[in-house]
What we know:
By secondary structure, this protein is an all-alpha fold. The protein has a domain at 94-150. The protein has six helices and no strands. It is extended, with a radius of gyration of 25 Å.
Amino acid sequence: MNSKNQRNSFNEQMRDLVKNKIVIAIAGIIFGFILIIHAAAAVDALVRILGWILLVSAAAYLAKYFAQKEERETSLMVLGIILAVTGIFFVIRPDAIVNLFPLIMGIDLIIAGISDLVNAVSLDKAGVQGAKAFIVMSAVVTILGIIVLLHPGAVADMIVTVMGISLLINGTLDLIMLAANKAD
Length: 184
């Protein structure tokens, strides 16, 4: 292949790459708006989609198990059943899955906050300078954990809204950078 053909091929690949980047940026902006405006519905939809993916994976494992002629691997059947039950739960009860993550996060924050608070109080008793700031920060972490436990749905919606804002900003920046590069 001569250098002119290589250059043309490279230019075509670059044009395709830019087109793909534009499509991805626009999709990110649209999806970002959807996440911001309909956070709860978007989370439920994502959990349901994950549930369907788990169900398809379960079907594949079970099909592979039943396709084996001689010695069947029981692990394939067990994994298929576990994925199927999990997938069905995700599809039927997405709200339970959505609320589970913030609950785990809240419990983790409370445990970490209390642990840090105990250590900070020990540092304060030992006369370590700045220990009072650690006490305050540990108490704040513990309080945040309690808030997360009391309002798990709001936390999940907030996380999705932040994801939406991030996608919106990222897509917009990508389009601006592509336009700036094209102007050069």
